[in-house]
Amino acid sequence: QLITVTQDNLYSICKYLSTGHEHTIQQILNALARKGVILNTNSSVIYKYMNRLKELEIVNVRIQGKTQYFSLNRQYNVVSGSEIGDKNTPFLVSLQKTLSKYQTLPVQEELEILINRSMPTIIDEGFMIIDFETADHYEGHEFLNFLYYKIAECETIQFQYQKFSWPAPKEVELQPYLLKEYAKRWYLVGRWKGSEQFVTYPLDRITEINWEYEGAVFERDPTFDPHKRWQNCVGIFFADHKPSQVSFELKNNEHLNIEYLKTAKIHASQKEKLIDEEWIQVNLRVVISMELVREIRKWGVHNMRNIKPKKLDKMVRFE
Q: Distance between CA 296 and CA 188 in Å, rounded?
């Protein structure tokens, strides 16, 4: 049986309200927007949705001043499964706080639902255990939730993309495959229709997404393996290029460059060879790219010699 757009949107609203909190119309609109359902604040559609849920006694409404606060009747909670034990709640809260910099990923919504099904008196017992490097506020974060579900559903998307060097954005139609984070930025990896080549788009250069675009469902390439794709790369680009043998010699100094490089490897292929007490040779098998150049430069060009091949030496020293 086919599910109508209205039924799908009503389900999304109920799932959002399953967190156990009260939410305003604007908060519900924002939650729908993250899933690609864009409704104008002044539109009657959202009010028709909420009135329908009230008529069915699925939601409760509390009015304070001019604001309506909606909550879901517990018997209609759309998240199935057993109750969360008291011992597990602090762990879930710690996990939620650990992932606090990823607010726009669907996992946050799911965690909040699970946490609020437990005892509210122990919710404050959890605390952050890991602090990820990602930026707190990154350009393009508002697209993450939408793109996540489009990737999961194998649905073609359409958006406007602008390179720094372009005078104006261009339209892109893409079969999305992966969201990848690198160096505090998010990237979308996918393929154009009819192409076998994968392309990468930084989210901070996507100027607009066509939320209403009904893209065709595509058959995902089962051979796509993110781990294999980037195994020869430093960074996000040039994954299709062949790796090269790369080497350079690094000088130790009062900052203990050698010890730090040994424990903070540039790439998994890195091998070191001690030359003397002052110098070490570093060998890599990687794709030569500007991302590799930036990683090498971090150690100070004045601390290096014998950078090979010549192409890389020129890029490190002069480009």
A: 26
- Residue 46 clears pLDDT 60, i.e. is over it: yes
Q: CB atoms < 10 A from the CB of 250, how many? A: 23
Cα angle: 77, vertex 78, 84; to 5 degrees: 65
SS3 label, residue 201: strand
Name the H helices within the chain.
5-17, 25-34, 44-55, 89-98, 106-116, 144-152, 226-229, 257-263, 290-297, 310-318
Q: Are 15 and 32 in contact, with CB atoms under 8 Å apart?
A: no
Residue 266 has pLDDT above 90, yes or no: yes
- Mean pLDDT value of segment 31-50: 78
Q: How far apart are CA 298 and CA 309, in angstroms?
A: 19
Q: Which stretch of DSSP H or E encloses residue 304?
A: strand 304-308
How far apart are the C-alpha atoms of 93 and 274, rounded to whole Å?
Answer: 47
Closest alpha carbon to 95 in 123, 72, 76: 123
Does residue 199 have a pLDDT over 80? yes
Q: Which domains does the chain have, with CATH numbers?
A: 5-76 (1.10.10.10), 89-125 (no CATH), 141-229 (2.30.30), 244-318 (3.30.70)
Q: What is the tens place of the pLDDT at every residue in 131-151?
A: 777 766 778 888 888 898 889
Q: Is pLDDT larger for residue 175 or for residue 181?
A: 175
pLDDT on residue 1: 47
CA distance 142 to 11: 21
* 269-285: b (≥16 Cβ within 10 Å) or e: bbeeeeeeeebbebebe
What digits encode the pLDDT tens for the residues 16-27? 887 667 888 888
